[in-house]
Write a structure and sequence with these properties.
11-stranded mixed sheet; Amidase signature (AS) enzymes; alpha/beta; two-stranded antiparallel ribbon
């Protein structure tokens, strides 16, 4: 087994990163600056002839080679990336119709299937030699059809952070530990840690993460970017290594709300192999129509006061932003969720049951040596020095002990979680006060990475919307002693449009995002 850095360098076209770095001539003016580049700016530069898809792709490969040595966010590069970029350029020259992501390099989390030369492993060494997936995940098909260049895959908390109760977010057996780009000894949060870090460092134009509970929102907030956790069913789950079908979803992780809206518009499609997306079909739309600078006008926003009072410094940062919402024309109403602390145990029970059932189904379809959760437990025990040097697999063992989804305990827990978070939670509060959204701090700020003790349990506000299966958006809110903090807007099912309106207007009013200071200038 070659180490991660050697693997990345081998998987790229020979010498690409080094050659690209030389062409860009770091420290002197370059033809185009990729730092903080947006979909719109990249498309404008390509349209004007200032740059090409190939040059853009070479530039991002160079950034990864130069910067990711410190961050450890990219687990593998696509050896076909430059060939795809060349095809994009040829299509432009031949005046062929191009999609909304034409020539745009995207990084995706390493639990999303690609039927190409890259691996799909969820960060586990157990899947490194597994057969290549028979087809792309549905969302990867959508990305390719939209013209995106799949640049590579990002590191993650192994098995999407559902292996141990003492894990370190951003660590996987295959990829090692990912580091926060603002202060390197701080944690990036999980499990979409690599996607969050890569976006903060401008290692690609856009990225895709996945969430069960907090795994898009937390790394996005902690790394100072925009993350959208969509309504369950808006985005297909087919071809994504699962935790739990009642909460899992993929979603955009980007530097701007506008990029996230473009990406969500591409990802949100009906998938015949994932029936839940059929029920969501009537809600699918072009989300860029909600990018309105005056989007706060007339909005009624509940202030989730139960999420304040947990971190004095975060409160001090977020409170003035409530006045920004008012100044933009929103009405604010303090709200209290009566059952906020009562669904955690039931959620965990649901996740244990669904993880065993859903993962076994995925592994059986994938093929390979390890076909069940029990096989993975045995693999980890046999390879403990590589897979369990810092923490164990207590969650794996708990999940393996569960029965099937016909068990009464599972069915009761599932009903309980949805009742408490939907009918008695978000729906009840929003209907009572006729709200368009709820606002809260996304969570705390990055904690010190601790491979001995594991994560320290900094609070997050993502669970209520995650368990309900409802949408949530986090936007950069500023910094606490050099570390990013986010502000979240969540609401009822399929209200992504309203949330994007609010988030975009807030973003435009505050402009709180800043690139990590230690990164070298590429201008």
């Amino acid at each position: 087994m070659i180490d991660r850095r050697e693997f990345i360098l081998r998987s790229a076209v020979t010498g690409t990163a080094v050659l690209a770095a030389n062409r860009l001539n770091f420290g002197s003016p370059a033809p185009f600056d990729l730092e903080e580049a947006t979909i719109q700016s990249l498309h404008a530069a390509m349209s004007s002839g200032q740059t090409t898809a190939r040059k853009i792709t070479e530039g991002y490969l160079a950034r990864i080679s130069e910067i990711d040595k410190k961050l450890n966010s990219v687990i593998e590069l696509n050896p076909d990336a430059l060939e795809i970029a060349d095809r994009c350029d040829a299509e432009v020259k031949s005046r062929r119709r191009v999609g909304p992501l034409h020539g745009i390099p995207v990084l995706i989390k390493d639990n999303i299937d690609t039927a190409d030369k890259m691996h799909t492993t969820a960060g586990s060494l157990a899947l490194v030699d597994a057969p290549t997936p028979k087809r792309d995940a549905f969302i990867v098909e959508q990305l390719r059809m939209a013209g995106a260049i799949i640049l590579g895959k990002t590191n993650l908390s192994e098995w999407a952070n559902f292996r141990s109760t003492h894990s370190s977010s951003g660590w996987s057996g295959r990829g090692g530990q990912t580091h926060n780009p603002y202060i390197l000894d701080r944690n990036p949060c999980g499990s979409s840690s690599g996607s969050g870090v890569a976006m903060a460092a401008s290692l690609a134009a856009i990225a895709v993460g996945t969430e069960t509970d907090g795994s898009i929102i937390c790394p996005s907030a902690t790394c100072g970017i925009v993350g959208i956790k969509p309504t369950l069913g808006l985005v297909s789950r087919s071809g994504i290594i699962p935790i739990a079908h009642s909460q899992d979803t993929a979603g955009p992780m980007c530097r701007t709300v506008s990029d996230a809206a473009v990406l969500l518009s591409v990802l949100a499609r009906t998938d015949e192999s994932d029936p839940i997306t059929k029920a969501a079909a009537e809600h699918v739309t072009d989300y860029t129509q909600f990018l309105q600078a005056d989007g706060l006008k007339g909005m009624r926003i509940g202030v989730g006061r139960q999420y304040f009072g947990r971190n004095e410094k975060v409160d001090k940062l977020i409170e003035p932003h409530l006045q920004v919402l008012k100044a933009g024309g929103a009405t604010l109403i303090d709200v209290t969720f009566p059952k906020l602390q009562s669904f955690g145990d039931a959620e965990y029970e649901v996740l244990l049951y669904e993880f065993r059932a859903d993962l076994n189904k995925y592994l059986a379809a994938r093929g390979g040596q390890y076909k069940t959760l029990a096989d993975l437990i045995a693999f980890n025990e046999k390879n403990a020095t590589k897979e369990m040097p810092y923490f164990g697999q207590e969650i794996f063992i708990e999940a393996q002990a569960k029965g099937d989804l016909s068990d009464r305990a599972y069915q009761i827990a599932l009903l309980q979680t949805k009742l408490l978070t939907q009918e008695m939670g978000i729906d009840a509060i929003m209907e009572k006060d006729r709200l368009d959204a709820v606002v809260a701090p996304s969570g705390g700020v990055a904690w010190l990475t601790d491979l001995v003790g594991g994560d320290c349990g900094v609070f997050e506000s993502s669970s209520l919307a995650a368990v309900a299966g409802y949408p949530n958006i986090t936007v950069p809110a500023g910094f606490v002693q050099g570390l990013p903090a986010g502000i979240s807007f969540f609401g009822k099912a399929f209200t992504e449009g309203k949330l994007i309106k609010i988030a975009f207007a807030f973003e435009q009013a505050t402009k709180a995002r800043r690139a990590p200071r230690y990164l070298p200038s590429f201008a």
